[in-house]
Amino acid sequence: MRKAFALPTVAIAAAAFPLLSISAASAHEGAHSYQADLGAVNQSGVEGTGMVTLDGNTATVMIEASGLLAGSPHAQHFHIGALGECPTNDLADDADGDGFVSVTEAAKYYGMIGSSLTTTGDTSPDSGLSIDRFPTADDGTISYERTFEVTDDVHAAFEAGTAVLVVHGVDKDGSGAYDGDVMSDLDPSLPMEATAPAVCGALEVAQMGAMPAGGAETGAGSTAGTENTAAIGVGVLAAAGAAGAGAIAYRRRQAEQA
Ligand SMILES: [Cu+2]
Q1: Same domain, 36 and 25
Q2: Which has the least CB within 10 A, 61, 110, 179, 241?
Q3: Cβ distance 109 to 83 under 8 Å?
Q4: C-alpha angle with apex 162: 97 to 83, nearest 5 degrees?
Q5: Predicted pLDDT at 47
Q6: Ligand 1 mean position, distance from CA 19 (Å)
């Protein structure tokens, strides 16, 4: 039964990300693909995945995320220019002790906004808080896809491994809305809940050989060990979700073999 379940997963992945397959088959020409396993920040419970294909400066972006505050918009960006990392899910980086890892406090890891992943119109940093043009998580999930032009500095960040995908907006107090006494470090007219990072992942070069579903299904662990190890390291951050669950199952299997 596990195998019967795994096969459609692979098929769906291939169908959802055809450019990824093409890129993996011809790694040194045309488009380059990147993936991010999104891990929760601010104990949001949010998880997801991001896929980006860059063909020159033309970016096709796909984001799937779940566990978000339902019925509210979620600002989402490429962040660039720092370490290409994310804050941890605990409050270790809450330097001012306000109960949130704010964008300011997270910036040392993931940097400034490089692109605003809006649904329509401008995608520059100027639209960073244009919440009327960001996805609304009607049932707590976001399924985003858009193709647009990025700037040279964003392209360079992808190549340097310092591009990070961040989705914002966390219902820290569980009230069902963005509210509370702590105001945003980015816009003092907004609650901190509206702008604090909810989920984050470094955009890393996608490697089809490292896809957890394929590795687990074929059991070809010994031939692809190094690549799979790298993928699993990222997968742990995502904790769950289809890809994460596959990675964890695979990791268990590897641990049993070791
Ligand atoms: Cu952001």
Answers
A1: no
A2: 179
A3: yes
A4: 40
A5: 97
A6: 25
Helices and strands per DSSP (H, E), number in the chain: 8, 9
How much is the pTM? 0.71
How many angstroms separate the alpha carbon of residue 78 from the centre of ligand 1? 7
Determine the distance separating the centroid of ligand 1 and the alpha carbon of 124, expressed in angstroms: 12
User: What's the pLDDT tens digit per position in 40-75?
Assistant: 999 999 999 999 999 999 999 999 999 999 999 999
Report the C-alpha gap between 9 and 16 in whole angstroms.
10
Distance CA 39, CA 44 (A): 9
Amino acid 30: pLDDT: 77
- Round to whole Å and give the CA distance between 57 and 78: 14
Interatomic CA distance for residues 162 and 154, integer angstroms: 9
- From CA 12, how far away is CA 185, in angstroms rounded? 40
Query: From the CA of 95, how far away is ligand 1's center (Å)?
Result: 19
Same domain, 215 and 193: no
Neighbouring residues of 47: CB distance < 8 A, sequence distance ≥ 6: 38, 39, 40, 65, 66, 67, 199, 238, 239, 240, 241, 244
Q: What is the mean pLDDT of residues 228-233?
A: 35
pLDDT at 48: 98
Neighbours of 107 (CB within 10 A): 16
Structural domain harbouring 20: 1-30+208-258
Question: For residue 40, how far is its CA from the centre of ligand 1 (angstroms)?
Answer: 14
249 CA from centroid of ligand 1 (Å):
31
Mean predicted confidence (pLDDT) in 127-140: 94
Tell me how far the alpha carbon of residue 198 lies from the centroid of ligand 1, in angstroms: 10
Domain shared by 40 and 102, yes or no: yes
Do 117 and 160 sit in the same domain of this protein?
Answer: yes
Could you give the percent of the chain with pLDDT greater than 90? 67
